[in-house]
Amino acid sequence: MPDKSAATLYFPDEPVQPRLVSPFRGPKTVKSLESLGEIYDTRAAYMVCDYQHSIGNYICDADGNLYLDVYAQIASIPLGYNNPALIEIAKSPEMIDAIVNRPALGNFPSTEWEQILREGLMAAAPPGLDKIWTALSGSDANECAYKAAFIYHRLQQRGKGVDFSDAEKTSTMLNSAPGSPDLAILSFEKAFHGRLFGSLSTTRSNPIHKLDIPAFKWPKAPFPALKYPIEDHEEYNRKEEDACLAALAKIIDEWNGTIAAVVVEPIQSEGGDNHATPYFFQQVREITKQKGVLLIVDEVQTGVAATGTFWAHEQWQLPSPPDMVTFSKKFQAAGFFYELDDLRPQQPFRQFNTWCGDPSKALIARGIVKEVKDKDLVAQTARVGDYLYNALAELQTKYPAKMSNLRGKGRGTFIAWDAPDVDARNQFLLDMKAVGVNIGGCGAHSVRLRPTLVFEEKHADLLVKAIEAVFSK
Length: 473
Description:
Blueprint lengths: L5 H5 L16 H10 L21 E3 L5 E4 L2 H4 L8 H7 L2 H8 L12 H7 L11 E5 L2 H21 L7 H7 L10 E6 L8 H5 L18 E2 L12 H21 L3 E7 L13 H13 L3 E5 L25 E4 L6 E5 L20 H16 L2 H22 L5 E4 L8 E3 L3 H13 L2 E2 L1 E3 L3 E3 L8 H15 L2
Helix pairs in contact: 4-12, 6-12, 10-11, 13-15
C-alpha cells in the first residue's frame, strides 16, 4: 500500500466534505440550461458543470456547489476530476500529435500506435485475450464485436480461403440472403448494450431507449432474478439460475434462424444492477461452447477495477475465456479484446471506419493502467467496497422500508439497492443532491453507486452519513 492514500497523493486540496452555496439547480445553472437549450437538447441534463473547479471525488456545478460524486459521469471517471497524472499526459507532445494529427488508424497508423497499445490497453487485457480492436464508444465497441461474430460465423460455414459467391455479392446489396444472412445476437432480459442499431436491438432495459427505432428481431433469454443477499438464498437462486440456463439452451436450439453470439453483462447495470453467481456464467460459457456460439462479455460499465478485480468476469473462474470482451467508460477509450485469429476478418475494410478508435484516448488509457497498477487501485476498490457495503448493510437493517435488496457484496464499489418505488427513488436522488451528493439510479426503482477508483473510506463515511440524513427526515 502507498504511504498515503491515492486521493491525498493526487488531490491534497480535495474538500473534506461537500460545499453548498445555492440550491440544486441554482440561478446560474438554470440560466445556462435555458440558453444552451436554444441550440442543444438539455432535457436530460442534471446540472451544468464547472469542470475546472471540480476536483477528485467532487464535482462542481455552475453555481459553485461542490457535490461528492458517486455517479462519476455514468461510471466513466476513473481517477477523479482533474487528476494530475492524466493532466501531464494531456500536456505531452504525444497527446498534441495525437489530437492535431489525428490519424485514420485503419489506413495510416502512427509509428507510436503499437507501443501505445502494448503499454496501455494490452497491458490490461483480460486473461487469455491477446488481440484488440479499438472503437469510438461503448455502443460502437459492441457493434464491432457483433460484426466480428457474424463474419466469424460465416467464415466457419464458407471455409477459409473461399471467395464470396456472385449470389452473396448481389444479394447483400439488396439486404437479402445469402449475402445478408439471417444471423442473430442473443441478449438477456433487462440488458443494456448501447444505442446504435445493432447494440440497441440487444438492449432490453427501458422502452424509451428503443421506441420508434426499427430493430433486428433477435432473441432474448431470461436473466436470473435472484434474491439478496445471494449467499442467504442459495437454494432458491440455484433453481432460478438453472431455469434461465435451460431456457437459454432451448432458445439457441429452437430459434428460427442462427444465433452467432450471446452477449452478457457481468452485472446488468442500466437494467437495475442485477447480479448472477459465477455458476451461472460458467454454465453460459459451457452452453455456448457446446453449441458453437460465441460469448461476448460486455464490460463497458463493469471493467477497469470497479468491481474489485480489473475485469468483473475474472471473478467467474471460467473454464475458458470469453471470445470477446468489450470495454469503454473508465478506460476512456473503447473497443474489444479477443483471441481467435478468425475474429479478424480475412479481408481488409470489413471491420473499419475512418478513425478506428482514437490514439488520444488510448494515451489516457495507458496512463490509467499505469496509475491503477502503481497505486494498487484494484485492491483499494475491493477494500473500500467491503467497507462501504458493510456500512450500507447496517443502514438497510435500520431503514428496511426505504432500502432493500442491497447487492454488490464482494464486487468493489459496484453497489446498489432498491427504493420502495420509482417515485421514492427519484425523490431520494433529489434529496441527496440537497445534502451535497451526486448519485444515480437505474432499473425500475434502484439506486446505484459508481464512484471513482480513488473513492476511499473517508468518502464512504460522508456518503453513508448523507444517506442516513435523508432517510431520517
